[in-house]
Specification:
- The chain is α/β, with parallel strands linked by helices.
- It folds into three domains: about 375 residues, Glycosidases (TIM Barrel, Alpha-Beta Barrel); about 55 residues, Alpha-Beta Complex (Oligo-1,6-glucosidase, domain 2); about 80 residues, Golgi alpha-mannosidase II (Immunoglobulin-like).
- The protein has 15 helices and 18 strands.
- The strands form four sheets. An eight-stranded parallel beta sheet has the order 9-8-7-3-2-1-11-10.
- Helix 6 runs parallel beside helix 7 and helix 11 runs parallel beside helix 14.
- The longest helix is centred in the middle third of the chain and has 17 residues.
- The chain binds 1-deoxynojirimycin and calcium ion.
- The site of 1-deoxynojirimycin (NOJ) has 9 residues, from loops.
- It comes from Sorangium cellulosum.
- Its EC number is 3.2.1.10.
Amino acid sequence: MHGSRWWQRGVIYQIYPRSFMDSNGDGIGDLRGIRSRLEYLSWLGVDAIWISPIYPSPMADFGYDVSDYCGIDPRFGALDEFDALVHDAHRMGLRVILDYVPNHTSDRHPWFLESRASREGEKRDWYIWRDPAPGGGPPTNWLSEFGGSAWEWDDATGQYYYHAYLKEQPDLNWRYPAVRDAMHEVLRFWLDRGVDGFRVDTIHHLIKDSELRDNPPNPSYRPGMPPHRQLLRQYTTDRPEVHEAVAGMRRVLDGYDDRVLIGEAYLPFDRLMAYYGQDLSGMHLPFNFHLIGAPWNAPAIAEVVREYEAALPPGAWPNWVLGNHDKPRIMSRVGPAQARVAAMLLLTLRGTPTLYYGDEIGMSDVPIAPEQVQDTFEKNVPGLGVGRDPERTPMQWDGGAGGGFTTGAPWLPLGPDLARTNVEVQRADPGSILSLYRALLALRRAEPALAVGRYAPLAAGPDLLAYVREHGGRRLLVALNLTSRPRRLELPSGILGGRLLLATGLDREGELLGGVVDLRADEGVIAEVAPAQGA
Ligand code: NOJ
Ligand code: CA
């Protein structure tokens, strides 16, 4: 895999730190817990961990409200424990990616306390303060992603401040040079400690319209959608000047060896591509979330892959995501049979995959009773199903009380399927979804065609997805049956199936294929292919 970078070949594993492993029985995951489970991650075969925010935070948005960018929240541990985690991870060949939250701080961050203290203060312009509209009320119609106006009135200084998310998350003013400098220092602080890169939170929100124009109504808004969707976010997100800010972050990373910059932006492909930056001077990997929203059928997924591949700028490296801490889990979206097909898809498409903790054991969204709700989004906008607690429940390590996650009371409930859906049981079961994930990761590591090879789609009819990955003359066929009925794939005349390397049922390895591939219901396979004789 000559010439490729670790973040191109590798697979990223997202850890939601509150929920991964609790080392001290307070029911909340922590750094020592993560460290104690590195052996598992190395056994599983991932290459990097991305840890959602671990910085000091009042936890209004569970760490996405940062009150000190250069520390560790005591609930998660301390800096020396962080250093030990990085040290151990590196020793085991695992990279460590941190979450970087540049768009907003906590309202308890000293910068904001100083900013709100007076209109004349040195840090006033570090945030976005505005007078009321001429007739009174908020300066614009801009809405918070988490419900209500995005402007919060501050009585003491008689102005509003802007918050794209909670009012406890005031937006930083990235047009102000001192803010950029301070936030670049934050990057350097962690890069100097050996961090291998960052996942940058909500990057498309960073810059807002300088003229503060009202957002237009969204013609596709329907009741039942989250309230902020009533408006198109034309003047609050994806502003042209954002790319200069991204390039600034990238320049900081480029001062170090081999680090990665990943951007979180939910955008259509044509808009998303701009985040690779002019001449690829922006994000290495603007997250591609389009598999999360796609209807789960072969034509729809084929179209997502086609559009994405076609839209990528020359030289830009692709990436794929099936789930994260903001979205329903893949298991709950597609069901247990297709969750295996989804695993094979994620780990065989061209581009860096990001795997969400627990998906490898087939964890589902856990039902959350009203009195168990933790997520402020759900509390602010109840009844629409926007809450993110179901996909943030504790990792299920074993079937005992606390699920091997905690000796205390977990901060969110464990799943009702704990007895089956846990690491201990599935590690011992050669047919489990965990065994499938591990086999896929091992195959990907062994086969450059899967990690960095070319991608060519095959025509496969309405129920199947099929493609060939190729590197250095070695060609692998991936054939996925998206239906619950058996299906046959006829290979084009130019190619012949060879040895089957891996099936989602983990029970067909070594089988020899000819000109057809017979797939059982909900089955995917990976096989060697060769040119047909005389072809
Ligand atoms: C995106 C994060 O993934 C989400 O969890 C958070 O609530 C918002 N950004 C605000 O930081
Ligand atoms: Ca703990």
